[in-house]
Amino acid sequence: SRGGVEVGEAAAETGKGKFKMPGLLASRMEAMLGDERFADDVVVLEGRRFPSHRAVLAAWSGFFSTMFGGGWAESAAREVTVELPARGFDDLLMFCYTGRVDLHKDNVSALLQLSAFLQVAELEELCCAFLLRPPDAAEPPAPPHLLQPLQSPHAESARRRELCVPEVARP
Questions:
Q1: Rounded to an integer, what distance in angstroms lies between the CA atom of residue 67 and that of residue 16?
Q2: Each residue's pLDDT tens digit, 45-103
Q3: How many angstroms separate the CA atoms of 43 and 64, rounded?
Q4: What secondary structure, in 3-state letters, does the chain show?
Q5: Smallest Cα–Cα separation from 95: which of 169, 26, 12?
Q6: With contact defined as beta carbons under 8 Å apart, do 147 and 159 qualify?
Q7: Alpha-carbon Rg of the chain, whole angstroms?
Q8: Global pTM?
Q9: SS3 of 102, please?
Q10: Pick from 99, 104, 114, 107: which is nearest to 43 by CA?
């Protein structure tokens, strides 16, 4: 066993001696998110500072990929301010670093808005799927304002294209 992963199990799981350790990778990336020593950028939203890594943000977000890799003034800045609500950004970062997200009725709206604007297609899809899932008897249905027309190039189906991201203009 190394780092909480049983090497024998990993090899047996793939059957060819190739190793897959997504849980280990996610936990190591989560540790990087919480360790500011190696952060090379700070994203500021509504005055809240989010230390992060440009490569991680650019890998997941079309917005940050363009910002950091293009001719924008921010491409050389160590701190960038984005005019978006801060609510949900910590969850978006956790998704970008670990591939994990805990969607619920209290955060899905904020995450949908952030992921649509920042062009994090996979998270946007998860939010859309969450909103369109069959209603759970224990949970109230999605608020009607979340079910307005959406022009999302990332939506998988015609029904998902009917969703919208209120109050956030797409870049």
A1: 41
A2: 999 999 999 999 999 999 999 999 988 888 889 999 999 999 999 999 999 999 999 99
A3: 10
A4: CECCECHHHHHHHHCCCCCCCHHHHHHHHHHHHHCHHHCCEEEEECCEEEEECHHHHHHHCHHHHHHHHCCCHHHCCCEEECCCCCCCHHHHHHHHHHCCCCCCCCCHHHHHHHHHHCCCHHHHHHHHHHHHCCCCCCCCCCCHHHCCCCCCCCCCCHHHHCCCCCCCCCC
A5: 26
A6: no
A7: 18
A8: 0.71
A9: coil
A10: 114
Query: What is the predicted pLDDT for the residue at 22?
Result: 74
Owner of token pair 């999605």: 142
3-state secondary structure of 61: coil
Take residue 70 and report the two structure tokens written for it.
């293009």
Residue 122 to residue 116: CA distance in whole angstroms: 10
Token duo for residue 105 = 């009725």
Structure tokens at 72: 């924008």
Residues 6+ apart with CB under 8 A from 76: none
For 26, 33, 94, the CA distances from 98, given in Å and listed in that order, are 4, 9, 6
Whole-angstrom Cα distance, residue 113 to residue 102?
A: 16
CA 16 centroid distance within chain: 32
Tokens representing 61? 């977000």
Query: Is the separation of the CB atoms in 156 and 144 below 8 Å?
Result: no
